[in-house]
Amino acid sequence: MSGLAIEVSVAPEYQAAESSEAESRYVFSYTVTVHNQSPHSVQLMARYWKITQGSGDSQEVRGKGVVGQQPLIGPGQRFRYTSRAILQTPVGVMEGAYTLLNTYSQRAFEVPVAPFRLAVPCQLH
What is the mean pLDDT of each run of 10 residues along the chain (125 residues)? Predict the structure, then answer.
């Protein structure tokens, strides 16, 4: 256990203008907030996402940092960024984890990101 209190929240949003039902292209943005509630600075080193389509097909994405950055997040600070996912179905789920570095102990640890739903809003007539 890292002993560090890191809270991750995600707010997904469907991007209708960039999506095309005819092409089975459903674009979602998601805004992630990483809140460092610990007494030490942390650096977000890497990300892991598992993206599951409504069909059950899934893909895994790993990479350094987020949106081209490996941000340093001080005690009590928040880091927020927005990224995108493109699905072939109108509904899906993303979940994952961030690898962070405790800059005090120089130890890396993982913070899970709870599953969140990507879904085209229902059209009520």
Answer: 80 98 97 97 98 97 96 98 97 98 96 97 68
Encode burial over 74-110: b for 16+ CB neighbours within 10 A, e otherwise. Answer: eeeeebebeeebebebbebbbbbbbbbbbeeeeeebe
**Token reading at 77:** 């600070």
Is pTM beyond 0.90? Reply is yes
Report the SS3 class of residue 125.
coil
State the Cα–Cα distance between residues 76 and 41, nearest whole angstrom: 9
Cα end-to-end span (Å), the chain: 50
